[in-house]
Specification:
Number of helices: 14
Distance between the termini: 30 Å
CATH topology of the largest domain: Vanillyl-alcohol Oxidase, Chain A, domain 3
Strand content: 25-35%
CATH architecture of the largest domain: 3-Layer(aba) Sandwich
CATH class of the largest domain: Alpha Beta
Oligomer: single chain
Length: 428
């Protein structure tokens, strides 16, 4: 679970803090039902990997860490019914068993989240033909404010299914989630530097030539880091730890940029010295995640796919113009649209642009420069990452906003599952 010292909960980066009245860890779903019936206000916490105050509460905080593992599986459909508290990094040890032989269709580059947390916030990886993780949910059990459990799918409670796959924990508590998986597969990861201008010119063509394509773009450097992942039958060639490690270099350069901002352009120019072409092969669950020990805060918007490159160009120009001191690169990814009411990818193929700031630096200094540009291109914010949008602005971006809010009121009329942040976002 996330940090808890002297009754204070904090998220992974330390930016969000709360002092809940109590933190409960039920051992099973029956205990969880009793808690829901007894408490007036509840928020559920997974790994604390959201950068927004989604979890912050002074009421009851519930961790599902003890409600984890695979409940059942269907070999014919290649699906698994998974307990909501299961961490993504633990999931593979269940799915890889010979009797199951399944893997997630897609993952992001962080695997610390609980499955329910990743689903509820629309967490995603990359791939022009691949959805966010929530779109591979085939069914879920929802524990409602009354303590009742609803089984939801495209055929049972279809409206709740359409809304509940990305609901920020506002409709109730996901207890079990059925994921559409596929047989286990290996991926070949290749990382190299290439000119920013060339890549941006040809990326709309090359996005379909790789299963996954991801770019890390630095504000003062004319080369970007290109990472591609493709399916392969080649023998495993595991990732090696560099010396000094990427994390060590990132922390060092971030510290230098924080203390000596004028060094930032020169530090970024060292990219070519430290980044050499590398190729690794491993099972998908080992290739997707990247170790992240350097803490940061993050903003991310999903831009309509035909405007993403133009938007990125404008963001880079602004970072240079305002001489924003951040060593972290911008992350640039493709995500396929879906049909989930509050998914940032609802009916929209997107380019995801992520902006990071070192956790010891004020994120507002960079986010205030970048966010107006991301909003200008009708970007939708990632629900787990920092943004300043209000209810009126969000409603204009989501055609099913009012339908979602009506359903939320119906399922939770007393707003048991809303904390102050969500009350402001949904009711304010």
């Amino acid at each position: 679970m996330s940090d808890l010292k002297q009754g204070i909960w904090s998220n992974w980066s330390g930016f969000q803090k709360a002092k809940p009245q109590q933190i409960l860890q039920p051992a099973n779903i029956q205990e969880l039902q009793s808690i829901v019936r007894e408490q007036q206000k509840i928020r559920v916490v997974g790994a604390g990997h959201s950068f927004t105050p989604l979890v912050c509460t002074d009421a009851t905080l519930v961790s599902l860490d003890r409600i984890s593992g695979v409940a059942s599986f269907d070999l014919e459909r290649c699906q698994s019914n998974i307990y909501a508290g299961t961490r993504l990094y633990d999931l593979d040890q269940h799915l890889q068993q010979q009797s199951i032989n399944q893997a997630l269709m897609n993952q992001g580059d962080i695997d610390q989240q609980s499955l329910a947390g990743a689903v509820s916030t629309g967490t995603h990886g990359t791939g022009a033909d691949l959805h966010c993780i929530s779109a591979y949910v085939e069914a879920f059990d929802l524990l409602t404010a009354s303590g009742e459990i609803l089984k939801c799918s495209r055929t049972e409670h279809p409206e709740i299914f359409a809304a509940g796959r990305v609901s920020l924990g506002s409709l109730g508590i996901l207890t079990q989630i059925t994921m559409q998986n596929r047989p286990r597969y290996k991926l070949k990861e290749h990382i190299e530097l290439c000119p920013v201008e060339d890549m941006m010119q040809h990326i709309q063509q090359s996005k379909h030539q790789h299963r996954h394509i991801e770019c890390f773009v630095f504000s003062h450097e004319k080369q970007l880091m290109l990472k591609t992942l493709n399916e392969t039958d080649e023998a495993v060639l595991p990732r090696k730890e560099n010396f000094p490690s990427d994390d060590t270099l990132l922390t060092l350069c971030s510290e230098l940029t924080k203390n000596f901002p004028s060094l930032n352009p020169y530090l970024q120019k060292l990219l070519g010295i430290f980044v050499k072409p590398t190729t690794y092969v491993d099972w998908s669950s080992k290739i997707f995640p990247t170790p992240r020990n350097t803490k940061f805060n993050e903003m991310e918007y999903q831009i309509p796919v035909d405007r993403g490159i133009e938007c990125l160009d404008e963001v880079l120009h602004a970072l240079r113009t305002y001489k924003v001191a951040t060593f972290f690169p911008l992350e640039f990814r493709f995500v396929k649209g879906d049909d989930i009411w509050l998914s940032p990818f609802y009916q929209q193929d997107s380019i995801s642009i992520s902006v990071h700031q070192y956790h010891k630096q004020d994120p507002k200094l960079i986010f205030d420069v970048v966010e107006p540009i991301l909003q200008k291109y009708r970007g939708r914010p990632h629900w787990g990452k920092m943004h300043q949008m209000n209810k009126t602005e969000l409603r204009a971006l989501y055609p099913k906003w009012d339908d979602f809010m009506a359903l939320r009121r119906q399922l939770d009329p007393e707003a048991k599952f809303l904390n102050p942040y969500l009350e402001k976002l949904f009711l304010g």
